[in-house]
């Protein structure tokens, strides 16, 4: 594969690392104090309560609403883990699939917000490309440790 400056595998690593930085920024920009006190989940509960799909409303009420503090930690630290995993190339396929699932959850919850949809669509597309192109083969701990072929 002919490319400018870097080889194809290195460009895929750049894409993977960029996605990791994006997840890390999602974690970094949260006001942790208010987020862990429930602000993020309160906001999401308001969005879910007005959602056009009854399944989203009932799913949120069943899974998230009974445990807002725990879910706030799950969301925030999932974003941190995804960012670090992708940047370091550690358990990269797991991080890419986890990111796809988190983007799908965000995409579903925020179905009416086009700005949010664009971000989640781009992150999901990058995840799919990085996953199927096996982006962990270059510049990753997975590669250095001989994991995932």
UniProtKB/TrEMBL annotation:
- Taxonomically, which superkingdom? Bacteria
Indicate where this protein resides in the cell. Answer: Membrane
One Pfam assignment: DoxX
The identity of this protein, by name, is DoxX family protein
Q: Name one GO cellular component term.
A: membrane
Q: How does it sit in the membrane?
A: Multi-pass membrane protein
Tell me which stretches of the chain form a coiled coil: none
Q: Which InterPro entries match?
A: DoxX (IPR032808)
Instruction: State the UniProt keywords alphabetically.
Output: Membrane, Transmembrane, Transmembrane helix
Query: Membrane-spanning residues where?
Result: 6-24, 121-139
